[in-house]
Design goal:
Elements (H helix, E strand, L loop, with lengths): L16 H35 L6 H26 L7 H23 L1 H5 L5 H17 L1 H6 L1 H22 L4 H83 L4 H31 L8 E4 H18 L3 E6 L6 E4 L1 H17 L5 E11 L3 E10 L9 H4 L10 H5 L5 H11 L4 E6 L3 E11 L2 H6 L41 H14 L4 H8 L1 H8 L3 H9 L3 H10 L21 E5 L3 H11 L4 E5 L2 H8 L7 E4 L8 H10 L8 E5 L4 H10 L3 E4 L4 H27 L1
Parallel strand pairs: 2-4, 8-9, 8-10, 10-11, 11-12
Antiparallel strand pairs: 1-3, 4-5, 5-7, 6-7
Bound molecules: adenosine-5'-diphosphate.
Adenosine-5'-diphosphate binds next to α11, α13, α14 and β7.
């Protein structure tokens, strides 16, 4: 990139920032140096006039000194002028200043170049040598130009050196080497100047680039901060708006559930209720997060009872733990104070997240909440809350991301266990706001410990007692919860021993067998059956009812069957009168989806015309398809935990027992690439969600007709 004219002056109308910046910086350096050196030059001239030997006439000395001093004065004035308005000067202004300084330097060096002529006036070569030395000293001081503006420096240097060379060449034959040395020095300095100027220009270029980047960064930061603020504001407004209708849905479904309903209606309303609960949790989390982002979240500082907060956490999780047969226990270490000052609701929120996660990610075993005192002063206490589980655990490489918003240990987590990946991020911020921190220890397939610390104030009444009663202050006596280091309660056992035997002839026993049979056959009618005969089955199945019901609500039919089988409900003979045969209904369809709501929807949509079976994951779908009673058509979801829809289809086709079953994808993945991939893998159709029921029915019918026609032709071909 050429940024100067041949003479090194700034081109007239250049817009090159680096060239303009370099010119401005070089002018500032050069003018600054001349302004600063005025008095030095004056002092050197005055001293020299007096110390020169008397055989050099006074008028000669003055002829040298006075012009040089005058030159320093002119320099000072010119340079003050150059500096004036330099920062704002236009390209043209800079160019004019460069030209002034060039003339100034040329005159300076010409005057200094005359030194050897004045000093050697009387023919004394020693004095002439002193003169040349002064010239060289001046030249070296002018080296600043070498880096900033080579044209000025090189022309000035040659004016100065030529005058010295001319003197020595004409006055002393023996000084030929000196003449050569001076000429060589001129060449070396010229070259050096060009190199130095390049480096100078480069460093100025880098400075400008850095400044530009910093300015851009600052600008982007401003935009990002503004956008975050706006987003948070928007989210918090919109979340409030959304929360209102959601709570109306929750309360209305609660009221509807209390009224007389048919089993089917009850099932639908329960689904609405569950979905609205999920939605409300999500919206609350998003609201919290946006409040935190916008710095609008404030903590309360009120007195509360720790036992009350812990009681709430356990009560809210009891049902979930019981449904999974998980032992939930609380352990309060001695010395933990009961009355605290702080934000009870926010503490509860953090603990709820830890405990509900622990239950969610644990299939069997226990969840243990432990509280211990870490540190205390007269006014404050620091407590540590740990939640230990025997669940799936977490791979160490995921630890760092866990406490970040929207992050889950494994991207399939949300598909399998639900969740948003927001809870831990919120817990971390809340713990930090309470002066504490959060952490995790975990081993895959063994379990995890999530912990947090927090500081709380001590209510005044407690602090006043402190003088009389040293540590431990306040060992709580909590009737319901106090179990300092008590052993884990035994895992609740199914109450099967006390229950009626499955093989009596009562209608309830038949119901149990029918439920088992439907579950074993992946028939979602089991879900309706348990809802319709909830009271009868609860009596019959006792403590296991909740677990069977949870499994069925999640459409985990194999698990429901295992639980029923363990209680003896397997007898197919008792089912004979009610058993459907494949011939009852025209065709059978297997719906594969990991979301219970979707399975319920498809079942209700298809059940009047077809025999419907369900599988909540790919593995189960493979087992059904390759079993003794394969379906006529498979409706397959794509995004599922573990084996996804594409992998399931590949495996279906690889197995001769299932390769002939037509597959239709039914999925929320609506990208054209996904559709192409699905069809390329061998699916016959690709339907995207949300589905339009009549269209689904029509496309299912078409596929089944094609399959029938194909089977008919195949039969004919075989006969022939
Ligand atoms: P969510 O549970 O809603 O996805 P969280 O922020 O509460 O969001 O948790 C983030 C992720 O941390 C979870 O998706 C899961 O992968 C992991 N995790 C949290 N608690 C546990 C636990 N007790 N055991 C195993 N994994 C956990």
């Amino acid at each position: 990139m050429r940024i100067h004219t041949a003479w090194g002056f700034l081109p007239h109308h250049t817009t090159n920032t680096v060239a303009v910046g370099t010119a401005r910086a070089s002018l500032e350096l050069r003018a600054g140096q001349s302004i600063a050196s005025k008095w030095v030059i004056w002092a050197v001239c005055a001293v020299t006039v007096f110390v020169l030997p008397a055989d050099l006439p006074l008028w000669v000395r003055l002829c040298w000194a006075l012009p040089v001093m005058g030159m320093a004065e002119v320099n000072w004035r010119v340079c003050t002028h150059v500096m004036d308005g330099l920062a704002q000067a236009s390209t043209q202004g800079l160019r004019v200043r460069q030209i002034w300084l060039w003339w100034m330097t040329a005159i300076n060096q010409a005057l200094m170049g005359s030194t050897v002529w004045w000093f050697g006036y009387s023919g004394d070569l020693t004095l002439a040598a002193v003169g040349t030395s002064l010239q060289l000293i001046y030249l070296s001081a002018a080296m600043i130009n070498a880096a900033t503006h080579p044209t000025t420096f090189v022309s000035g240097a040659w004016i100065n050196l030529s005058l010295a060379i001319l003197y020595w060449a004409t006055h002393s034959l023996v000084s030929i080497p000196l003449v050569l040395a001076l000429a060589g020095m001129g060449l070396v300095l010229s070259r050096l100047s060009v190199q130095m100027a390049h480096s100078f220009e480069e460093s100025i270029g880098m400075r400008y680039e850095n400044q530009r980047l910093l300015a851009k960064l600052e600008e982007e930061k401003q935009v990002a901060t503004e956008a975050t603020r706006f987003k948070s504001q928007f989210l918090s407004n919109i979340s409030h708006e959304i929360r209102t209708p959601i709570s109306a849905i929750t309360s209305m479904s609660y009221l509807v559930l209390k009224s007389e309903l048919t089993a089917k209606q009850r099932k639908y309303v329960e689904m609405i209720d569950q979905c609205s609960l999920h939605l409300r949790k999500l919206i609350n989390q998003v609201l919290d997060l946006s409040k935190m982002d916008a710095g609008m979240l404030q903590l309360e500082h009120r007195e509360f009872r720790l036992s009350q907060a812990l009681d709430n956490v356990l009560t809210m999780n009891e049902d979930a733990a019981t449904a999974k047969d998980i032992a939930l226990s609380l352990h309060v270490k001695p010395g933990t104070p009961e009355r605290l000052l702080g934000d009870e609701l926010r503490l509860t929120e953090v603990l709820l997240n830890f405990v509900s996660n622990a239950i969610k990610f644990t299939e069997q075993g226990s969840v243990r909440l432990e509280i211990a005192l870490v540190e205390q002063t007269t006014e404050r206490v620091q407590l540590k809350f740990s939640v230990q589980d025997t669940g799936i655990g977490i791979e160490p490489e995921h630890f760092d991301a866990l406490f970040k918003s929207f992050s889950q240990a494994d991207s399939s987590t949300s598909r399998k266990y639900g969740g948003t990946g927001l809870g831990l991020a919120i817990a971390k911020t809340l713990a930090e706001m309470m002066g504490g921190e959060v952490g995790v220890q975990s081993e895959p397939r063994v379990g995890s410990v999530f912990w947090c610390t927090a500081w709380f104030g001590r209510p005044e009444t407690v602090a006043a007692d402190l003088d009389n009663e040293p540590i431990p202050l306040d060992i709580p006596i909590w009737p319901r919860l106090a179990q300092p280091d008590a052993p884990d309660p035994a895992i609740p056992q199914a109450l099967s021993a006390a229950l009626p035997r499955p093989n009596d002839d009562s209608p309830e026993a038949l119901l149990g067998h029918r439920l088992a049979w439907l579950s074993a056959n992946d028939d979602p009618a089991a879900v309706d059956l348990i809802a319709t005969y909830a009271a009868e089955l609860k009596n019959r199945l006792g403590g296991s009812f909740e677990r069977i019901q949870t499994a069925l609500r999640q459409y985990d039919l194999p698990k429901a069957y295992r639980l029923l089988e363990a209680m003896g409900y397997t007898d197919p003979a008792t089912l004979a009168p009610t058993q459907k045969t494949a011939g009852d209904l025209a065709s059978s369809i297997l719906v594969v989806d990991d979301t219970p709501t979707n399975l319920a929807l498809m079942f209700d949509l298809l059940k009047d015309e077809y025999q419907v079976r369900v599988a909540s994951n790919g593995e189960r779908a493979l087992a059904i398809a390759s079993g003794s009673n394969p379906p006529d058509l498979i409706l397959l979801d794509v995004m599922m935990p573990g084996m996804d829809g594409f992998a399931t289809l590949t495996q279906l086709q690889a197995n001769p027992a299932s390769a002939h079953i037509p597959v239709v994808f039914l999925t929320a993945k609506n990208q054209i690439e996904d559709e192409e991939k699905g069809l390329r893998l061998g699916a016959l159709d690709y339907i995207t969600k949300p589905v339009n029921p009549p269209i689904v029915l029509r496309r299912v019918r078409t596929q089944l007709m094609l399959k029938k026609a194909h089977d008919f032709l195949q039969d004919k071909a075989n006969n022939l």
